Structure formats: C-alpha cells, structure tokens
Amino acid sequence: MTLKSAFARTPTILIAALVAFPLCAWSQKAPQYTLTDLGSLGRNSFGSGVNSAGRVTGYADINMSSTEHAFLYSDGMMADLGALGGVQSRGLAINNAGQVTGMADVNLAYAHAFLYSKGTMRDLGTLGGPSSVGRAVNNAGEVTGESFITRNSDGVSYLHAFLYSQGKMRDLGTLDGGAYSIGHGINSAGEVTGEAATSTGATHAMLYSKGKMRDLGTLGGDTSTGVAINSAGEVAGTSATTAEFGERAFLYSKGKMRDLGALAGDDSSLSLSINSRGQVVGVSYSTAPQSPCCVQNPFLYTDGTMINLNTHIDPSDPLAPYVVLSEANGISDNGLIVATGVDSRTHFGHAYLLTPVKGRDCR
Fold first, then answer.
1. How far apart are CA 203 and CA 299, in angstroms?
2. Under a CB-based contact definition with an 8 Å cutoff, are residues 181 and 213 in contact?
3. How many of the other CB atoms lie within 10 Å of CB of 118?
4. I need a surface site. Which of 100, 182, 279, 362 has the fewest CB within 10 A?
C-alpha cells in the first residue's frame, strides 16, 4: 500500500453542540462510543467529515447504481446535494456552519470544486485549467484544494494548491519550484497543509502560512503529505519511513514531526483528520506478507496513545455485534468521529457517526 494521493482518496465550535456532545477528558480511561448508521442514498455511503453539531458530509451511490452524489447528513436525514450540471459529486469536508466543499461534475469530462451553503452548490471554478477539487473548508468559508493551472509552455498542465477566499481562487505555488502541490487541510487562520513536489521531484508535506510554503520534511523516507491542520497549527499527516515497506501517521507540532506508530500487529498507519485538541484519527494496517489482504482498522490517537476504535464501541449498542469499522475519516473539536464500516447482515459499506458515551470522564 502506498502513500495515498489527493485524487486517490478522497476530509469549530457551537455552544449548542457542546451541550449536546460534551467534551470528554479521556486521560483516565479509554473512551467508548455509540454508533449511528447514517444510511445511504442507494446501497453504500462514505463519510468524509463531521462538525461539532453532528452534521456529516460524504458521498453515496444513488438509485442502487454506481453514480455517486455528495450528501449532507443532519437531524437523522441524508440529503442529496446533487451536482454542477454533470452526474456525480463528492462531499469531502464540512465546517461548523454546515458548509460543505468537495468536487462535482460540470460535464461528462471534468469536475470543479464547490462550496455548498444554505441549500445552494456554488462552482468555485479553477486556476485556469479544466478541473479542480475542494478538500477542506474552515469556519470562515475559506476552501483549499487543488486545481489544474493554465497549460505551461512545455504543453503540460500541472496541479497547484489553491486558497479560495472572498470569492477568489488563489494559486499557492509549490516548494522550491517543484512541479505540483495539493491542499488537503485549512484552519481558522487560513493556514493550509498538504503536499508539494520539491525541485528534486520528491513529494513532501507542506505548510502554507503568511504567504509562504514551508517543507515539513519526512519521517526518514522519501515522501510525506499533510492531511489536516488544527487551530493551533498542528498538522496530521502520513510519511514514508526508513523501513522498506509501509508508512506512518505523524503529528507535526512545534517544529517537530512525531511518528504516531501503528496498532498492535500492524506496521503502517495513515492520518486522516485532526481536531483542535490534537486528537488524530485514521487507519492502521499491516504490510507483512503473511497478514490478511486488505484488513485495516480505524484508530484514534489521543493523550499519546493509539486505540483501535473497533474495540471501543459500547457493547450495549444494538449495532455493536454486527458492524466492523475499517477507517476513521473525520473528527470534530468535541470528539465526534465519522467512520466507514460494514454491517455483516447487509454487507453494505455505510458511513457511521461515533458519539462519545457520556460518563464520569465527561465534563
């Protein structure tokens, strides 16, 4: 399994939400969660992001077909967000105001980044090239992602990270004149993280802040990518290591990149989201030849420990005996998690909302 690129994957605080979903101090004991099956618009669904009010975005197949549409899950209902004139769309991130960004077809050939707000999907355009993708949105409605730029003199179109703010899409450039860049995460200060090619052709995690793009380095390997950034400027991402195979989730904080390890029995992990408390969620898996193919588990990294979320579902939850989660894709500032899993009774893959169980360890 290789470092997941932006195109292969395709990710705040309300007072009322804090009442509904209290913050939990989990240093004394590991958290437990209840499960909510978010359903689908057809058979399968995938959850990409969650906000502090428990609203979720992602994408789902519609009408029992392979066509996918972005959705917004709110108040127990999954709403189809449609597309931009084409047939398909994906919701990839959501902010606390319920604004969604992602990608939507504008015709049969190309998709554009969009911002869905107050019932309307708005086309954010491109940097001059044919297509773009919105990857993350902050609470001010600023969006980052990537867009093809106008074809260069060499006849090749390149992807560049962008920042969409105040109605305009701005090119964030690359690292040291490298060929491309991608924006994966944005925080309340408008700082962007993602990945960018260096002048040597390597792909490194980057942090764009105050008009400059900085190389965050790696965990010893050749490649890395930043996937999410919180209000404190901490970056969660994934990096190749000095090991022959595999990759590791990392947390970049105070100028240092820390290897978050992997779950017991695994050697590799991927970060997919971070919240304001520095909690990271993602996927852990094994690259060992003898390991079962394609088995992966969702993790939560909190208080210096990585836990398997499959072992922390409230055993009294009606879905607990049937649902196995495969990846945790988003975490809100108050600890809500959106994950993807399969119900053994239906064998469909659905998005699930994990809500912390209120107990003595919650305040």
1. 25
2. yes
3. 8
4. 362
What H or E segment, with its residue span, contains residue 38?
none
DSSP per-residue codes, 271-306: EEEE-TT--EEEEEE---TTSPTT-EEEEEEETTEE
DSSP, res 174? -
Total Cβ atoms within 10 A of residue 52: 24
- Under a CB-based contact definition with an 8 Å cutoff, are residues 170 and 126 in contact? no
Say if residues 243 and 222 touch (Cβ distance below 8 Å).
no
Q: Which helix (H) or strand (E) holds 107?
A: none
The Cα–Cα gap between 192 and 326 comes to: 27
* Domains by residue range for the chain, with CATH: 15-356 (2.120.10.30)
Contact between residue 274 and residue 237 where contact means Cβ atoms under 8 Å apart: no
* Neighbour count for residue 5 (Cβ, 10 Å): 13
Digit-coded pLDDT (tens) for 44-91: 999 999 999 999 999 999 987 789 999 999 999 999 999 999 999 999
Separation in Å, CA 77 to CA 53, 56, 100, 318: 14, 10, 16, 20
Amino acid code (one letter) for 81: L
| CB-neighbour burial class of residue 234 (10 A; exposed 0-12, middle 13-18, buried 19+) | buried
Strand partners, 72: 57, 79
pLDDT in tens, 298-335: 999 999 999 999 999 999 999 999 999 999 999 999 99
Residue 88: CA count within 13 A, CB half-sphere: 13
Q: How far is CA 220 from CA 177, 208, 271, in A?
A: 22, 22, 17
Dihedral sign, Cα of residue 263, residue 265, residue 269, residue 272? negative
| 145/87 Cα distance (integer angstroms) | 21
